[in-house]
Design goal:
The chain is mainly beta and 155 residues long. Helix content is 4%, strand content 51%.
């Protein structure tokens, strides 16, 4: 269920997913949610209504992040891919492939030119989003660290 701050209690919740909600982020006037049904739902927060649906992944949408000044949404999935989507037109501009297992965490640099992802394949990848390719890849030795942290803040 997705909650909206409406005044009437009977209009407070409405069912959005038939499966589990896995990720949520906001950018400009939109909120985007990703679920285990491979779908990203887009909500217009000014109109308090569902705006549309993205179906560009073939696995659970496990993480996502937005960058407001570049107006992009970046999503990661259990299908081992990262998608860069332009907000507004909602077109996939790039699909990045390098992980060999699902992506579990993601963070965007404040400039919007770099992204950081961690995956079930025990790899952490720094992405150059300008060139749409990996800038640096490192292997993680300890699996317990990956299970403990589900989100990675950029500091």
């Amino acid at each position: 269920y997705f909650s909206t701050p409406l005044t009437k209690p009977e209009q407070h919740n409405f069912q959005v997913y038939t499966y589990f909600l896995r990720s949520l982020c906001t950018g400009s006037k939109y909120a985007v949610s990703g679920g285990s049904d491979e779908i990203c739902k887009i909500f217009d927060m000014t109109k308090r209504a569902e705006h549309g649906t993205l179906m560009h992944h073939e696995g659970t949408v496990s993480c996502m992040a937005t960058h407001s000044s570049t107006s992009h949404l970046v999503t990661g999935s259990d299908d081992n891919t990262i998608a860069v989507v332009r907000m507004g037109s909602w077109q996939v501009e790039k699909t990045l492939y390098k992980h060999t297992a699902g992506i579990t965490a993601m963070a965007l640099h404040p400039t919007g030119k770099l992204a950081f992802t961690a995956g079930k394949d025990k790899k952490m990848i720094t992405w150059n989003l300008v060139k749409a390719r990996p800038a640096f890849i490192t292997n993680i030795k300890v699996r317990k660290m990956m299970d403990k942290y589900s989100s990675v803040p950029w500091t």
